[in-house]
Amino acid sequence: MNEAIREPDQNSDDQVMELWQRFKKSGEDIVRDALILHYSPLVKFVAGRVGVGLPRNVEQSDLISYGIFGLIDAIDKFDLERGFKFETYAINRIRGAILDELRQLDWVPRSVRSRAREIERSLAELEHRLKRTPSEEELAAHMDMPVDDLQDSLAEISTLGLVALDELLGRDRDSSTVGDVLPDPRGTNPEAAFQVEEMKRVLADSINRLPDRERLVVTLYYYEGLTLSEIGNVLGVTESRVCQIHTNSVMSLRNRMTEPSYR
């Protein structure tokens, strides 16, 4: 009969390691439950980040439920001998589990995805012509639409943080899809380390080429970990406005990362 397991103190690394060693040795459900309870704040954190900009009908509690399955999978598959930090490993698993469930729900209308592609094409055309990131006024004029309508579209498109596996990476039918470039978890790639470093360099260069406001939003959100609401307080604008700026910045970065000069 299993003895009762007490959740370790948040600051007690020794107690957590003891649980890990016991679980990997015995696989007891009661020990797994203690680890799940200990690391459950990770699920809430990831669900909160993924949930930013999603439609209101997507409940935070549902995202947390999806994420729990990712946490359980992470606990079952985590290898203590590899020397990696569990939190880093688990966050990717939790986020993946949430995104997988959201993709199956297919809650994004085709019209929104079509509008996103139209704006992205227009943005790429203007960037190529101007040799810089266009302003929202320039983009709206190029698309022959009011700035307010463009901003509304950007706010709606901000829900497209999820990418279909069959989505083309380029602008012609022969381009690779997202699914084509996903790594095989069973395979090995000797170039992986170099590619990661090169991608970091290219991404940093692309971010540095953004206008000041867009660069600040990207930096505060992805590097400093601020929420959109907190960034709004810094910039003195509404959260929805920050969401629009963020969407525009991401689309611009995506275009720059696919430029031939970066390949």
Our count of domains comes out at 2
By secondary-structure content and strand pairing, the structural class works out as: mainly alpha
Helix content: 55-70%
CATH-defined topology of the largest domain: Arc Repressor Mutant, subunit A
**Individual helix count:** 12
Q: Could you state the order of secondary-structure elements as H and E?
A: HHHHHHHHHHHH
* Rg: 21 Å
CATH homologous superfamily grouping of the largest domain: Winged helix-like DNA-binding domain superfamily/Winged helix DNA-binding domain
Structural account:
- This protein has helices at 13-26, 29-51, 60-77, 86-105, 110-130, 136-142, 147-157, 178-181, 192-208, 212-223, 228-235, 239-257.
- The protein is an all-alpha fold.
- It has 2 domains: 13-105, Orthogonal Bundle (Rna Polymerase Sigma Factor, Chain: A), CATH 1.10.1740.10; 110-262, Arc Repressor Mutant, subunit A.
- The longest helix is centred in the first third of the chain and has 23 residues, at 29-51.
- The relative contact order is 0.08.
- The mean pLDDT is 77.
Outline:
It contains twelve helices and no strands. The protein is mostly helical. The chain folds into two domains: 13-105, Rna Polymerase Sigma Factor, Chain: A; 110-262, Winged helix-like DNA-binding domain superfamily/Winged helix DNA-binding domain (Arc Repressor Mutant, subunit A, Orthogonal Bundle), CATH 1.10.10.
Primary descriptors:
263 residues, mainly alpha, Rna Polymerase Sigma Factor, Chain: A, Arc Repressor Mutant, subunit A, 2 domains, elongated
Any chance you could write out the topology, listing elements then pairs?
Blueprint: H1 13-26, H2 29-51, H3 60-77, H4 86-105, H5 110-130, H6 136-142, H7 147-157, H8 178-181, H9 192-208, H10 212-223, H11 228-235, H12 239-257
Helix pairs in contact: 1-2, 2-3, 2-4, 3-4, 5-7, 5-12, 6-7, 7-12, 10-12, 11-12
